[in-house]
Amino acid sequence: MAVTERMPWYVAGLCFKCQGCGACCSGPAEGYIWVTRPEVELIADCLEISVSRLRRQYLKRVGLRTTIIEHEYTKDCVFLRKIDDQRQCIIYPVRPSQCRTWPFWADNLKNASNWNKAARKCPGINRGRLYTREQIEQIKNKKKWWQDGKQQPDIEESS
Fold first, then answer.
1. What is the distance between the alpha carbons of residues 56 and 94, in angstroms, rounded to a whole number?
2. Which helix (H) or strand (E) holds 68?
3. Distance between alpha carbon 44 and the CA centroid of its chain, in Å?
4. Count of other CB atoms within 10 angstroms of residue 121
5. CB atoms within 10 A of CB 16
6. pLDDT tens digits, the chain, 159 residues: what are they?
7. Residue pair 7/137 in contact by the 8 Å Cβ criterion
8. How much is the pTM?
9. Contact yes or no for 15/118 (Cβ under 8 A)
């Protein structure tokens, strides 16, 4: 008897269109913004600082992993800044995989309830472009974006 793969609850796809609001990068809850060694190097290059300075000022170790620090009180990512009255990521072209794959994170995709809970914080969820199940899986599983030779996002951005 063949084993059949169980289809995820989002088999018909999900809609998402980034609104550029920065809600995914901000508190009030504390979290982790995991970065890999290659991403650390790309972020340092983007900021035109050394990797050691980036590590001292903007990163911290948690166990064996590295995370971007957050503002102490707001819990916003330190790279989320107010520019021309809009909250913007100052490392957007080289943002980590974790940021690139929002909102298609495993926990958000666990069930419809989790997806809709994320939608209460993110105004782009359940709006805009329809992503197929296959596209969602591809985005969710893409960990080494820098190996593509391009630094463009896989998720459609706001204009």
1. 19
2. strand 65-68
3. 18
4. 13
5. 23
6. 566 678 899 999 999 999 888 888 988 777 899 999 999 999 999 999 999 999 999 999 999 999 999 999 999 999 999 888 888 999 999 999 999 999 999 999 999 999 999 999 999 999 999 999 999 999 988 878 877 655 444 565 543
7. no
8. 0.83
9. no
